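Q: For a teaching session next week I want to show students how multiple molecules come together into a single three-dimensional assembly. I've collected the sequence lines for a complex. Could you give me the predicted structure tokens for the whole thing so I can convert them for display?
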Amino acid sequence: MKRLAFDERGFTFDGKPGFLVSGEFHYFRVPEEDWARRMDLFKEAGGNALATYVPWLIHEPEEGTILFDRGEKRDLQGFLELCREKELLVLLRPGPYQYSELVNDGLPTWLIRNYPVIRATDPAGKPFRDESVSYLHPLFLEKARKYYKAFAGVVRPYMASNGGPVALLQTDNELSGIHMWFSGPDYNPETMGFGKEDGRYASFLREKYGTVKALNAAHGTAWTSFGEAKPEREDGASFFSARRRKDYYDFYFSTVAEYSALLASWMREDGLTGPICHNSANPRENPRFRETVERMGKDFLLGSDHYYNLDATWAQNSPTPQYALKILLGNEMLRAFGMPPTVLEMPGGSPSDTPPILKEDLLACYMTNLALGLKGVNYYVYTGGPNYPGTGNTADIYDYNAHIRADGSKNETYGALFAFGRFLTEHAWLARSRRAASVNIGFEWEGIRSIDCDCEKLSYGGGKAGKLLERGWLYALMCSACAPAMTLLTEELDPELPLVVPVSGALSEAAQKNILSFVEKGGKLILTPVIPDRDQEFRPADLLSPLFGGAVFKKSGKTLRALFAEGVGCVYGMNAVTEAEALPPDAEVLARDADGGAVFVFRRPFGKGQAVFFGADFMMTSFTQPVFLESLLARLGAKKTAFSENRNIFTSLLEDGEGRRMLFLMNLYSGRQRTSVRVTRGGEVLIEDIELEPMEIKAIEL
Amino acid sequence: MKRLAFDERGFTFDGKPGFLVSGEFHYFRVPEEDWARRMDLFKEAGGNALATYVPWLIHEPEEGTILFDRGEKRDLQGFLELCREKELLVLLRPGPYQYSELVNDGLPTWLIRNYPVIRATDPAGKPFRDESVSYLHPLFLEKARKYYKAFAGVVRPYMASNGGPVALLQTDNELSGIHMWFSGPDYNPETMGFGKEDGRYASFLREKYGTVKALNAAHGTAWTSFGEAKPEREDGASFFSARRRKDYYDFYFSTVAEYSALLASWMREDGLTGPICHNSANPRENPRFRETVERMGKDFLLGSDHYYNLDATWAQNSPTPQYALKILLGNEMLRAFGMPPTVLEMPGGSPSDTPPILKEDLLACYMTNLALGLKGVNYYVYTGGPNYPGTGNTADIYDYNAHIRADGSKNETYGALFAFGRFLTEHAWLARSRRAASVNIGFEWEGIRSIDCDCEKLSYGGGKAGKLLERGWLYALMCSACAPAMTLLTEELDPELPLVVPVSGALSEAAQKNILSFVEKGGKLILTPVIPDRDQEFRPADLLSPLFGGAVFKKSGKTLRALFAEGVGCVYGMNAVTEAEALPPDAEVLARDADGGAVFVFRRPFGKGQAVFFGADFMMTSFTQPVFLESLLARLGAKKTAFSENRNIFTSLLEDGEGRRMLFLMNLYSGRQRTSVRVTRGGEVLIEDIELEPMEIKAIEL
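A: Of course. Below is the structure for the complete assembly, covering every listed component.
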């Protein structure tokens, strides 16, 4: 078997770069007699790996009876042997939680029925739902440990380290989802240890604050010991409340990390070596895994799941530009974690018969992910089959409208799988490619994580900064000649790219210092739409004002009809946030209220660099917005990447750094579109009057 | 000029049936020198009318200076004269409110600035926003009256009654929107007259309750007079609170009706005769106009606005099945009002440059509306032009990406307009056609209006009944061989069609009586998912239990993996709501819990008819759902309409009652789809293996 490895740029197989192309293939569903044929079909479509859950529900039907026999629907060993024979790597996902459209989310019924004490609860002790377990509850861990041990015993001989196919192991599944989707963080008192000096919560606070006095000062509380501290649901209306909320979220995510690390340690104890992975349930949840990534250390792969529709309640039926922006955000965050952007669940179908998963949509989805940085993929599911009797919660035949149907026949969508697989094979150099960018969007984990729960007292809070980033800047830049990348504000900033920082009123001191030093050394900055005056703990911290040399700002109450920018004209769809009332003499005004003349955008030199203040926010609506951003970025020395005359066609340019370039043109709409494209980066190329079919993603090697 | 008339079946022109095909054409934007050419282009595309706002903002720039001069951008008369010459009917929309992407929503700046007292407020007296006026505020009415008089003076000679082109006048615009979108109903104390015995609110309560004692008994209050009664925001957590909330909403909508009637009376006083119309902002808001329709009486046309996307924050970028369901719901409600389904704003473009309005999507949108009952349309906007300086809030050039661009050039989407117009012309018989249906979905205005604000104490409340209707039954029936129509439960029920009644725990006594008598006389009923035990005033009222002859019901706590129905098999995606614990001897079980055996669906004879109780709810996910509904409806004698083998292709059949039939096949997805269709209604026709392009609506005359 080939040896799988990965770094921030991509995957390698025995050291040779390649895409990880995996298909979810449930040995507990797919009829055994058809395994070989379906594996061959997957390999023909360019696949090199298979993934499967290993459902506790099925392997421990009664407590204490753990069956990894060769019985029908439980023959994990047979499956792994055949994978070895077929030279397919394997990703195993033993849960404990898995969902997979199984009853009890894949947990044993005896566990759910007999041990209600293990359920996650809200602050009042009310459980969320039967299946939402409290990850670190000792009784749950005791039961799960036994299952993990049995699993390890079976799997050990098949590990890559033993010459077997198993190249990746996954801890649990879409962590935090079963809590956050149904209520919020888990407050199970036993798990969190409320009331105990050595409880998890007390320990977290002690480590963070050192003294109870410091804790009380930050939280506005009057505890006499750390053990006494008891959290409640917080509305974030005051800085105290916002700190208490943030601390609880941070604490909760640290318990998620602890849980992942514990599961990994069990694997190690039981002799399972090699890389471990986890899948964030969707791109916007990636920041929840900051503690997990830190704690899991080397050889850990965080990926995310990238569905566009699972039933008619989803916002979109097909992959749209809004979907693409979410994917871009997600992939860039994975890159910032030092991971090769990996989609651990890419739609292979849907559990719902409607909206249908159509082959054009599916191929567009895959190609969009690739254009936006994908390096590895696992299709969920590649193929299904009959559920173990009584274990399916959506149907007894788990067809999933997948590439290969439950009955073994080829779905139309197999064509999309095949076409994408062939594309990856034919352009293997893309496996180490990078996305070309003209500009960096700066963010920090804490900022982006708190998007939906920052403090309302901030000068610009309430999640607005996150929307401005995704639906404002990222969207507008994707409609411009200047492709955006994302970068962590707490790491070294690329001096070659102008840096846009959409902020709430809070930004960590480390980030503020880093930005200041970036500009000092020659960096070009756009700060928008406020000057942060608090750090991420909501303590006063205003290190960025000096960039603007004594400019006097005020919160603007204006309704802007338009901004007016010299050389551009009117810019529509901008909302006034911060006006500059007085400017230092070296400031250059870049945009004013088109009617009243108040200054909203200006720049000034600072150190060897330049700082632009941009006091407006916006959602992408009018093409005057990207035109303005292009002009602004040009003044800051940004180099264009690729420009589509029809701004509703997103572009992306992948490069290998040695002269190879692939241009992607994305028509993520249901109607035909035409455009002409000028590629600037890496040598000018003009592509004139090109037509794109509905949902067509054209890839053109230049 | 031809004389426009309408009834529930459609429009007539000098007595001859035809579609109303109007285009929004702003004389205050389109350059005068290009009016004639653009009118000709509209006529070439099948148009027979134009519509325009008459913006107060532009015609009364300073208080007291009302200008209907022949000045540039204000030449309403010139526009009307040219319409007469071109034989285009005109729909005039003088506001006062209009929006139309104008600053202040089209209200004069002096009005907004100088009279803040006219703003709508919340119960605490906080205004919603500057432009959200309180419709019946005396000061606002005083100002508006003068504008209306001036408007009438100009328009009178051009009215149809005087041989002119003006065939329709609209009162205000998207009424209730400027309140409900930003806060909720208006509580302006001056307008509503709180604290006054002869105030509007006191009068409403007096008329409804007669005595203060009765009011207090219903509201759980202790007022000593009607004048004393003061409303607050209500959460509906108790029946008292829910009644107070419902009464306030009913009262508020009655003030909306009063306002419309008042504007109409001004028109009459000033000599403007002929039909008057109003546009509900979207299909789901149609029920808000029950009081308006009643109050406006004859010669009133209620239409609704049917956008599918106005910017990237909308759920869908193109017309989808979810959009089609909303349209079906909306059109059926208009029919129930006795109106010809008229789309008073059908997208002609969008104020946002992204997502783009593409010609395929646009044609699919028009054809879908037609397939689902449309009889009249006004494109918003057919064409635009430069805004009066400083009056546009999205751009200075109001291009709107419309059929004819601001600069006069043809947009690609003109092709969609032209194709649809030609289709209507070539199939003029459709103007009096009816949509064939196999089954009726029963509703009542109060029920559907309270969908999002019924009482949580109801056995099935919290808006669930509305979702079950739209995303459950309507969706599943559109995926079945049995097309749904909708019918008011308080009017005569068609004995030929089985009647499905998705209810919350509340249903008016009148509706309950009507249903009972319908079944007694031979009707076939499906009641789901509870037996209502309250009337719409939340008073005990259980008239429907007798239908089920002593069956004992209980609220079900089950998680259903599936229902099992004889002859159908497992039905997935159903949620347990009500189980039957004991059945009368004459009951026939139709579906049980597939695992536990509890009864969820059964039928029994009652009078000359049959009653089915269906104790589960569902969102459309699995095609086993429509299969089950088909089988159930077949048992109740429903006759199939048209069946698409690919259930993701919606069908609709229009008939003229004299043998002409037009079948519509709708592919509202971005990928190609194939299907075969069997039409049963009106003579069997089989259409085999037909392919539909992305967003293609095929119309086949049979």
